[in-house]
Amino acid sequence: MTRDEVLGALRALGPAEPYRVKMVEPIRGSCRAERQQWLAEADYNLFRLPAERVCLDLLTDSGTGAMSQHQWAALLEGDESYAGARSYYRFEASVREVFGLPEVIPTHQGRAAEFLLFRELVRPGQVVLSNTFFDTTRANVEEAGGRAVDLPCAEAQFPGRPAPFKGNIDLARLAAILAESRPGEVAAVVLTLTNNAAGGQPVALDNVRACRQLCRERNIPLVIDACRIAENAFLITQRDPSCSGETVARLVRMLADCAESITMSAKKDGLANIGGFLALRSTELAERIRQRMVVTEGFATYGGLAGRDLDAIAVGLREVLDEAYLAYRIGQVCFLGDLLRGLGIPIVEPPGGHGLFVDAGAFLPHLPPAQFPGQALAVALYLEAGVRSCEIGSVMFGLDPTGRRPELLRLAIPRRVYSNTQLAMVAAAMARLQEQREAVAGMRLVYDPGVLRHFTARFEPMRV
Ligand code: F0G
Predict the structure, then answer these.
(1) Which residues sit with their C-beta closer than 6 Å to ligand 1?
(2) In this predicted model, what pLDDT tens digit does every residue of 45-54 receive, in sequence order?
(3) 196: left (phi > 0), else alpha (psi -120 to 50), else beta?
(4) What's the distance, Cα to Cα, between the start and end of the chain in Å?
């Protein structure tokens, strides 16, 4: 390497890991012929692959992170009492400290919190509006008989065009819908922070505040889906000059202050492997949920979790606010983004919080949405290098009649798990695919289970 090449490579690296590695998990390699067979056995759906057959698992950042020594130490203090465990009170104190809402209800993961909340908030026929619902959130609104409507901002439609807050809700459309709605027609507004389906893009503080104002005027509850709120807050400090002096902890509080209720999957910014919660302002709503949750989740002080899980989350929620950690985390996503951009691979710009999103529709222009370019690329990347990723497009959400919604491939990055060298391997595999991209076959959906179909659908490759 020349000196300039070395300096260029060093600049691309981003911030170093703010931790040392104390325990390692071996990765089993595989060859192309094996992967070819395994793909057929999995019906070309990577959710059907045993993890043993995956070299680098970028399927999701959910529950796949590495816990810190403080979290592992906290596990040993777990109090497994059925009711009123010490672990619960430590958990409650941490959630109150970070978010500031008084009522705290643990759940086994984020979707359970969504189920419990929307069952109370939504009546059949009512509408729930959002910047963009994630799949489980949408499913839980629909399960309660509601109609889930996405109102992403205009910038979100153009994957390759950078804008600082592509996660925003379209305030003009929100205001117009609210103005035209009959009283009681809109049950709630949900802001997903960050906006996962739109590329892990942040929502601006101003956007959240304006949304709260519109909701207040009509007495409609604003729900924040806070799965990745720390990443969202960090990105605000980076992208909104008026917030550059704020701490992440304060910004998280400012965002949470706007919400009537918060649903959380602790598997993301709780830095835990399982768990979630509801944080609510209304004691009356909290009591109703506590009474009903016993049937499915368990008693209200453990919500389907072991005491030790509650302790791990209590520590994780405070740890995730560490700005050195967040700088490294977001820096790692940018590192992969720099490599792919440099190769000329179309990505969602700018890179977001929890993963890199490839514009599969633009990368494989020979495949129309009905041949699922995101799924085709996920399959090709697995075959090429044993990397597991996730389609976010017409498989996950169904075909878009307007044809405007992007077909994306998400390379989700687990927290504190993979090195930049491992991510560079993904970029190398993408570069090889780029050279033979016309050979990537479209996918035919041969089994469609309906609800949340991406988890269990079956595919066949089409002839090229
Ligand atoms: N909300 C958002 C924005 C999510 O991304 C997820 C999960 C949930 C809610 C549900 O939380 O898994 O704890 O029940 N997203 C994962 C993903 C599965 O891969 O993005 P959960």
Answers:
(1) 60, 62, 109-111, 134, 136-137, 192, 196, 225, 227, 265, 267, 276
(2) 999 999 999 9
(3) alpha
(4) 39
For residues 282-299, one letter each, b for 16 or more C-beta atoms within 10 angstroms of the residue's C-beta and e for the rest, the string is: beebbeebbeebeeebbb
pLDDT tens digits for 128-164?
999 999 989 999 999 999 999 999 999 998 999 999 9
pLDDT, tens digit, 9 for 90 and up, residues 187-246: 999 999 999 988 999 999 999 999 999 999 999 999 999 999 999 999 999 999 999 999
Q: Which atom of ligand 1 is nearest to the CA of 113?
A: 14
* pTM tops 0.85: yes
- In the block, residue with structure tokens 């687990």: 414
Residue of 136, 273, 411 to mutate, ligand 1, most atoms within 8 A of C-beta: 136
Q: Could you identify the residue written with the tokens 């605000």?
A: 236
Determine the angle formed by the axes of helices 248-257 and 229-239, rounding to 10 degrees: 110
Give the contacts of 246 (CB within 8 A, at least 6 positions apart): 236, 237, 254
**b/e per residue, 193-221, with b = 16+ CB within 10 A?**
bbbbbbbbbbbbbebbebbbebbeeeebb
Distance (Å) from CA 300 to ligand 1 centroid: 22
**In Å, what is the CA distance from 110 to each residue of 100, 221, 270, 456?**
19, 19, 11, 20
Q: Mention every residue, 6+ apart, whose C-beta is less than 8 A from residue 244.
A: 237, 238
Angle, helices 32-41 vs 373-385, to 10°: value is 140
Record the tokens describing residue 33, joined without a space: 């012929």
Residue nearest to atom 11 of ligand 1 (CA): 110
List domains and CATH numbers for the chain: 25-54+323-461 (3.90.1150.10), 69-319 (3.40.640.10)
